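Reagents: none. Just compute today. Flagellar FliJ protein.
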Amino acid sequence: MTHRLRCLATLAKIRERERLDAQTQLIAAQQLQDGKSASLTYATDVLAEERRIATAGNVTMETFRVWFPSGLEKIAYATEEYHNASAATETARLFALETAVRHKATETVFRRLEKERNDSHTRREQAVLDELSLRTRQFIGECL
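Predicted 3D structure written out:
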C-alpha cells in the first residue's frame, strides 16, 4: 500500500469514528428532546386537569386563579426547554449528516485510488506476461 493510500485509510478510520460519535450525539440529543417533550406534555396536562377540577366545582376558582400563573410559567419553561432541545437535535442531525458525507467521500476516494493502483499493478503484470510470451515464441521460432 502506498503512502497516500495508507494516509487515506487512516483518514477513513478517523472519519468513521467521527461519524459514530456524531450518531451517538444525535441519539443523546433525541432522547433529551423526547424527555423535554414529555415534560411539556405533563405541564400542559396538569394545567388542563387543574382547569377541569376548578370548573367541576371541586376547587374554588380563586384557588385556580392563584395557581394559574405558576402553571403557565411551568408550561412556558417546558416549552422553551423543548425548543432548545429541538434545536440541539437539529444541530446534531446536521452534524451527523455532515460526518456521514465526509466519511463516504473519503471512502470513495480511497476505493478509487486503490482500484487505480490495482489496475496499474495488473497492467504491469500483463505487460510482463506479454513480454515473456513474446520471448518464448521467438525462442521457439529460433529453435525450429
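The chain has one domain: 3-113.
Action item: order primers for follow-up constructs.
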